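Entry 12.
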Amino acid sequence: MGDRKRISFKCHRIVGGRGKGMALISKDHICFYQTDPETGTIIERDHALVGQSIAGKVLIFPGGKGSTVVQGEGLFQLIKRGKAPSAMVIKIPDTVLVSCAVVWKIPLIDRVDEEFYGQVSAQSDLEVDADNGVITLIEKAP
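Predicted 3D structure (tokens):
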């Protein structure tokens, strides 16, 4: 087995920490209350990721939606069952999502180099180091 190529991109830390996992990319904003807390599966009708689990993934999405109570409770239920994302990459920070990520200590970044979005795909392996402002894409071995 050969070494897998690692490509790092700069990003902005919103909530510190580290997370790694497979990329899960959504074009839609996410309300964590609209996930099944037992599986981490998105259950919101007509959502881009309906039927897919966010558990342990590096979740890439525009931003959150919903009130503090809805977002906070949704994330709490996921965390309690070990089904939360390992890290989150967003384009549009909002105070509700940021507050929830702070409370539940989920690494959260934004302002990722635009080149990243052209190279990442669903199923890419990622490592987020929010503390140092770096996200690393690990290419699959040939």
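Annotation: The two ends are 9 Å apart (CA to CA). The chain is about 20% helix and 30% strand.
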